Amino acid sequence: MSAPELEVRSLTTRYGAIRALRDASLTVGVGEVVFLIGPNGAGKTTLLNTVIGLLRPTSGQVLVRGEDVTGSSPDSMITRGVALVPEHRRIFADLTVKENLMVAGITVDAATRERRLAEMVELFPLFEKKWTTSAGYLSGGEAQQLAIARALMSDPEILLMDEPSLGLAPTLVDLVFELLGSLREQGRTMLIVEQNAQRALEIADRAYVLRSGEIIDQGTGAELRERTDLVSAYFGSQDT
Ligand code: ATP
Fold this sequence. Notes:
Helix 3 (97-104) runs parallel beside helix 6. This protein is globular. It has helices at residues 44-52, 74-79, 97-104, 110-123, 127-130, 140-152, 170-185, 197-203, 221-226, 228-235, and strands at 6-15, 18-28, 33-37, 59-64, 67-68, 82-85, 158-162, 189-193, 206-211, 214-220. It contains 10 helices and 10 strands. 38% of the residues lie in helices and 25% in strands. Helix 7 links the parallel strand 7 (158-162) and strand 8 (189-193). It has a domain at 6-90 and 159-234: P-loop containing nucleotide triphosphate hydrolases (Rossmann fold, 3-Layer(aba) Sandwich), CATH 3.40.50.300. By secondary structure, it is an alpha/beta fold. It binds adenosine-5'-triphosphate. Adenosine-5'-triphosphate binds next to strand 2 and helix 1.
């Protein structure tokens, strides 16, 4: 069997005395859409930030297509085809939509960058009207689309997303989930952190449940959806 596209092996990450992630292991296969769900403070962001190289694990490994990339910098992860849409979007408020995308496309040649910019307008039609708008003036939903587009500028094989629907109005949550559906059709491998467990499990191939830094459950989206105990215990009231 070929190696998973992404593998996290027994990862432990600390913030000083706080062990935010304990021995967490997961795999994401080629073209798979895998969700990481769990309550506030479970360690979801810590896991993504460790995978992308923003945090160094105290033990464990991160493998991309079987290659050990533990401790690689975020820049070198991009060259390995892994990109992160971070929590709270972190777009440049003073730059226009186009400029935000241009900055994200800095690692590719000019012709490729132009082609990708055109692809982004196709995927996110609202950019056409907002092309020269400063990102600081975008609504929450628009800013989230820009954050996702920015990560796509490097055409990553593996897309990591941290709470893409957080803080969005219900119609915009729908839009984000539609977009995740389109990205899955493109065959993009995705590992997505999401508190909206009900919605996540509707489109997940598989999901892992993280609590207090540990993976406590896993299964296909359908399997975990049946587990009403799980959904109501950990996430029932958090759907927005
Ligand atoms: P949320 O949904 O609230 O973002 P999460 O599941 O993403 O939660 P993390 O943000 O990874 O969880 O946090 C895991 C644990 O690590 C929490 O107890 C949190 O308080 C702690 N933590 C996170 N960042 C830091 C930090 N920079 N310094 C110290 N402790 C931190």
